[in-house]
Amino acid sequence: METLESELTCPICLELFEDPLLLPCAHSLCFNCAHRILVSHCSTSKPLESISAFQCPTCRYVITLNHRGLEGLKRNVTLQNIIDRFQKASLSGPNSPTESRRLQPQRPYTATISGTIAGTIGGGGGGGGTSGSSARGSPATSSHSHPHANHANHANHGNHTNHTNHTNHTNANHSPAVVAKMDPRISCQFCEQDPPREAVKTCVTCEVSYCDRCLRATHPNKKPFTGHRLVEPVPDTHIRGLTCLEHENEKVNMYCLVDDQLICALCKLVGRHRDHQVSSLTERFDKLKQTLENNLTNLVKRNSELENQMAKLIQICQQVEVNTAMHEAKLVEECDELVEIIRQRKQVIAVKIKESKVMKLRKLAQQIANCRQCLERSSALITQAEQSLKENDHARFLQTARNVAERVAMATASSQVLIPDVNLNEAFDNFALDFSREKKILEALDYLTAPSPPSIRDELCTASHDTITVHWTSEDEFSVTSYELQYTIYTGQTNFISLYNSADSWMIVPNIKQNHYTVHGLQSGTRYIFFVKAINQAGSRNSEPARLKTNSQPFKLDPKTAHKKLRLSNDCLTMEKDESSLKKSHTPERFSGTGSYGAAGNVFIDSGGHYWEVLLGASTWYAIGVAYKSAPKNEWSGKNSSSWVFSRCNNNFMVRHDGKEMLVEASLQLRRLGVLLDYDNNSLTFYDAMNSQHIHTFEVSFLLPVVPTFMIWNKSVMILSGLPVPDFVDGVASDLQEQQQQQMGLCRQESPYLTGMKTCH
């Protein structure tokens, strides 16, 4: 009861829930307590009506309220009903008859039903009763029915403990309605006194309930009584085993797998189940229980996953609400700033118009004053001239008009005197307000989104032995602020998402403004994974991954290592057998043995993957491979533990290492030999490059840097280095290698084939 009461207590007021609200996080809270939480967040600037969210006091989950506030949350009606029933039970008291009948029998009754059924299934013997079982006899009859009832000493207490635990585990499987019908007190069926003492245990095997004294008397701690199942006291009608539906009073002890039902022994012997496949109750019980437990585990796991998924979705919904509110506030802020900028520009332009108006009017007023002054002088001169013209006396006219005539002539000749300089463009009609461009920009206002994922253009990407130039395109090029290039060595992992999440292995080149970038300092002959990220203020998006590879390390033949009977071309890419003895200085790195007509490359390789090809031409006798620097120069390559070669002698092809040779299959038309050295993955592979066919792979744990080596005994060969690894190389499967290794036999030194090879020498 105390545990139940704690579950029904509000975390705020520490009292039983009153008018509980069901929160979205599945916790509950009193309506008044929730109201007090909202009141605690109020202030003079933040009234109660404006509060739209609060935290659950149990899990801190943010509860968002709608316009109805707390009234918008659902009432936990089920919890309120439980509280009402709990309060009624508490008021009636634990000692009342009704409460005793309702509560006390639950544990022994429910435990015994489960334990009895389990015992019936497990042992096929005693079990729980059914509605069709016959009534139990008197105690005397019970004692006669079980001869072992007269034994002394009590039963095994270990059994008591085990079955008590099983009882507690199965307590909750039966409804209180069934329990309420039971008599809370179970009497001992073996006592001779009247009334009998209260039973402390029920023996499922004996189908009898015993008090403590009778239990010690009838169940001594010895066989066969140590195997009896003792459970908490249960009514007599519930300890009998389930009976067969077809044979009365026969207990079921088998399970028909065909009809999927419980049967008795008679059903199997003479009934309709005699030809059916059956199993023991224990076996069927274990199997069904295991299946149920597995399914229950999966269901619980799925529910947990669904809860986690739902929690994530709820969190995303909350984040959407927060982000939406933030963006709406940002929109209002940005638009207000635009309106303020337009208002300020309006004031500035209005001031400019007024200033231009004042300036132009001032100039026009000055010009008007000048014109008026000229007009007055001209009018006075005209008046004086007209007066002179009225004079009829020649002498007087000549005396007065000469001066006037000169002034009129001067005024007529000079337009500047009569007509001042007037600017007719000062009417302010060449001024216009054109905001069409700005209007289009305002009409195109919209929220900014993350740019579309860029696309890496594999066909435009280029590579050398230590660089890769990556090209990409973007549909939203004008909305991209910058690009970010990420790359790492490709390890063959197909799950790019998990590969991308392992951030420690990625190299990042930020703030790229162009649609291409060249990465330097890469390993030769190595595959890389590239991502391009397009970035702007709204976010970023990644391109699909692209696998690009660097070319192999370029190299040439080293003249200092060439045998004196070999002639190298000027570009040191071709070597030819030359029988004429040339005078070459002897050095430790030069091939010098009789018949060791070889030369080495001018690089030592200690990492990465490298591919080169050899144009064999008409040569039918050669050996091509790799070797350590310490490999002897006075014997064939492959005759020692420091070199690995593919060789041909006329029509025979073989691979050789440490003096051991193995025949391989190759076309007599082999004209182009491909060599792939994967130093990091410890392999050396030979291919027919023209036919894209695998020939042989050496699995080698390289300990030192290796150098390409070449030997010929006739004609000439040419090397092509610095090549990218061909695509057909990726298709070589390990099972093909195993199949070829099984078909090829390892030759011994004394074999006829090797004897023939020695003749070729």
Automatic annotation (TrEMBL):
<dbReference type="InterPro" id="IPR003879">
    <property type="entry name" value="Butyrophylin_SPRY"/>
</dbReference>
<feature type="compositionally biased region" description="Gly residues">
    <location>
        <begin position="120"/>
        <end position="131"/>
    </location>
</feature>
<feature type="compositionally biased region" description="Low complexity">
    <location>
        <begin position="152"/>
        <end position="173"/>
    </location>
</feature>
<keyword id="KW-0863">Zinc-finger</keyword>
<feature type="domain" description="COS">
    <location>
        <begin position="389"/>
        <end position="448"/>
    </location>
</feature>
<keyword id="KW-0175">Coiled coil</keyword>
<feature type="coiled-coil region">
    <location>
        <begin position="289"/>
        <end position="323"/>
    </location>
</feature>
<dbReference type="Pfam" id="PF22586">
    <property type="entry name" value="ANCHR-like_BBOX"/>
</dbReference>
<keyword id="KW-0833">Ubl conjugation pathway</keyword>
<dbReference type="InterPro" id="IPR013083">
    <property type="entry name" value="Znf_RING/FYVE/PHD"/>
</dbReference>
<feature type="domain" description="B box-type">
    <location>
        <begin position="239"/>
        <end position="281"/>
    </location>
</feature>
<keyword id="KW-0862">Zinc</keyword>
<dbReference type="GO" id="GO:0035372">
    <property type="term" value="P:protein localization to microtubule"/>
</dbReference>
<dbReference type="Pfam" id="PF13445">
    <property type="entry name" value="zf-RING_UBOX"/>
</dbReference>
<feature type="domain" description="B30.2/SPRY">
    <location>
        <begin position="535"/>
        <end position="728"/>
    </location>
</feature>
<dbReference type="InterPro" id="IPR003961">
    <property type="entry name" value="FN3_dom"/>
</dbReference>
<feature type="region of interest" description="Disordered">
    <location>
        <begin position="114"/>
        <end position="173"/>
    </location>
</feature>
<feature type="domain" description="RING-type">
    <location>
        <begin position="10"/>
        <end position="60"/>
    </location>
</feature>
<dbReference type="InterPro" id="IPR013320">
    <property type="entry name" value="ConA-like_dom_sf"/>
</dbReference>
<dbReference type="GO" id="GO:0008017">
    <property type="term" value="F:microtubule binding"/>
</dbReference>
<protein>
    <submittedName>
        <fullName>Midline 2</fullName>
    </submittedName>
</protein>
<feature type="domain" description="Fibronectin type-III">
    <location>
        <begin position="450"/>
        <end position="553"/>
    </location>
</feature>
<keyword id="KW-0493">Microtubule</keyword>
<feature type="compositionally biased region" description="Low complexity">
    <location>
        <begin position="132"/>
        <end position="144"/>
    </location>
</feature>
<keyword id="KW-0206">Cytoskeleton</keyword>
<dbReference type="InterPro" id="IPR036116">
    <property type="entry name" value="FN3_sf"/>
</dbReference>
<keyword id="KW-0677">Repeat</keyword>
<feature type="compositionally biased region" description="Polar residues">
    <location>
        <begin position="89"/>
        <end position="98"/>
    </location>
</feature>
<dbReference type="Pfam" id="PF18568">
    <property type="entry name" value="COS"/>
</dbReference>
<dbReference type="InterPro" id="IPR043136">
    <property type="entry name" value="B30.2/SPRY_sf"/>
</dbReference>
<dbReference type="InterPro" id="IPR000315">
    <property type="entry name" value="Znf_B-box"/>
</dbReference>
<dbReference type="GO" id="GO:0005874">
    <property type="term" value="C:microtubule"/>
</dbReference>
<feature type="region of interest" description="Disordered">
    <location>
        <begin position="89"/>
        <end position="108"/>
    </location>
</feature>
<dbReference type="InterPro" id="IPR001870">
    <property type="entry name" value="B30.2/SPRY"/>
</dbReference>
<comment type="similarity">
    <text>Belongs to the TRIM/RBCC family.</text>
</comment>
<dbReference type="InterPro" id="IPR040859">
    <property type="entry name" value="Midline-1_COS"/>
</dbReference>
<keyword id="KW-0963">Cytoplasm</keyword>
<dbReference type="InterPro" id="IPR017903">
    <property type="entry name" value="COS_domain"/>
</dbReference>
<dbReference type="InterPro" id="IPR013783">
    <property type="entry name" value="Ig-like_fold"/>
</dbReference>
<dbReference type="InterPro" id="IPR035752">
    <property type="entry name" value="SPRY/PRY_TRIM1"/>
</dbReference>
<keyword id="KW-0479">Metal-binding</keyword>
<keyword id="KW-0808">Transferase</keyword>
